[in-house]
Amino acid sequence: MMRTKLSLMSWKASLLLLALMLVAALPTAVGAQPPRPDGIESVAPTYATQGDTNGLVTVTLVEAIAPPSWVNPLSARIGTLEGSAIHRDELVITAVFDISTDEPAGVKDVATEFPAPRGTVVFTKPDAFEIRADATQTVGLFVNEEGSYNGYTLFAPLQYRTTYLIDNAGRLVQSWDSAYTPGNSVYLLENGNLLRTATLPRGPNSKFGAGGAGGRVEEFTWDGTLVWEFEYSSDQHLQHHDIERLPNGNVLMIAWAHKTAAEAVAAGRDPDLLADGELWPDHIIEVEPTGAAGGNIVWEWHVWDHLIQDFDPTKDNYGVVADHPELIDLNFDGASRGQADWNHINSVDYNAQFDQILLSVPRFSEVWVIDHSTTTEEAAGHSGGNSGKGGDILYRWGNPQAYRVGDAGSEALFAA
User: Fold this and answer.
1) Which of 39, 77, 205, 226 is the least buried, fewest Cβ under 10 Å from its Cβ?
2) Phi and psi at residue 162, in whole multiples of 5°?
């Protein structure tokens, strides 16, 4: 009888030892452990589209920390989506996912959960799977994620004559119809009016055919009544890209001026940098609206009045470019590649505190600041105004190569 009891005790001890060994082989966890972002080696495929069903996703575990092959996953997830038909084969886990058409688009974490002795352990791969918007959807709201700005969106499609204002739910709040397609810029004013640029048909302005060409500015009331229009278009100049309403009600406008090849060479331009056989230096005008149509140009500033060059020593503007960052190198080609649209200023802003104008100059990969407190006469020279520097550049940033200081490594702004 004693021997039987001892044998039974030994058998029970062996079972207990075996159970302890099996438990030791399981991943250890206490309660709900933080997800382990190092547990998944790869995910394939890496994206799906809203509305995709019965999609098979393969998850490969990191071998060094993977649970033993006989431990099967409890779940597999993409974001908050739960997979079905989960199967494990060594380090590879497969699961089937059905993605509804209203599942939010975006990048999601992939996770798989395993049992552990005192809870579960979750292996994740952050931002490993993208759910893309339904490719068959062409209109309407695509994304409105938490954290988006709670406001309105104003836009003017380039090939349409209507400007739209929508809310974050994609609902139309207001729209304005024009007889013209936009000239790249549109603004909703504080009084609820709409200020927009417009593209005139090619005609007297046929010399100017680059992107952003406009020639016309319009103002509509909230209900769509046209209350002001102004055109700046001829064979010698054309408004383009952007505008800026000033506190006094006037409007700043960007425009091209036309210079023949002879005029450009006479100013010191290298003839090899005249691929189009002409040059369109930019200028800024300030327009005072008069009545329902027209306006007076009450101030202007021209790039052409602030040039320097070291190509032709016979010209008055010949000098050391690097010594004059306040001036514009007539032979800096930048991204223009000899094209007529040399500066391509495409944005204008105004600082009321300092009475200064901010300009974006993509072909130079720079931002320029100029003095607006000058008279037009002072703006054409190098003295006067609050700065005492007339129309010279007060500050420029983005590409020191434009004034022969620094090299490619010092460029901080990259534009085309």
Assistant:
1) 226
2) -105, 140
Q: Is the dihedral of CA 254, 259, 264, 267 positive or negative?
A: negative
Task: For the chain, give every domain's residue range.
Answer: 30-132, 152-410
Query: Cβ-count burial of 37 within 10 angstroms (0-12 exposed, 13-18 middle, 19+ buried)?
Result: middle
Residue 165 corresponds to which amino acid? L
Is-contact 99 81, C-beta < 8 A? yes
- Token readout for 273 is 């940098």
Q: Quote the DSSP letter at residue 334.
A: T
CATH superfamily of the 30-132 domain: Immunoglobulins (2.60.40.10)
CATH node for 152-410: 2.120.10
- Encoded tokens for 73: 């996953």
Contact predicate 142/49, CB 8 Å: no
- Token pair listed for 269: 């331009």
Q: What is the pLDDT along the chain (416 residues), one digit of tens a residue?
A: 434 333 434 444 444 444 444 444 444 434 556 788 889 999 988 888 888 888 889 999 999 999 999 999 999 999 999 999 999 989 999 999 999 888 999 999 999 999 988 789 999 999 999 998 876 666 777 788 888 888 899 999 998 999 999 988 888 999 999 999 999 999 999 999 999 999 998 766 678 988 899 999 999 999 999 999 999 999 999 999 999 999 999 999 999 999 999 999 999 999 999 999 999 999 999 999 999 999 999 999 999 999 999 999 999 999 999 999 999 999 999 877 889 999 999 999 999 999 999 999 999 999 999 999 999 999 999 999 999 999 999 999 999 999 999 898 999 999 86
Residue 202 one-letter amino acid:
R
Number of neighbours of residue 103 by Cβ within 10 angstroms: 21
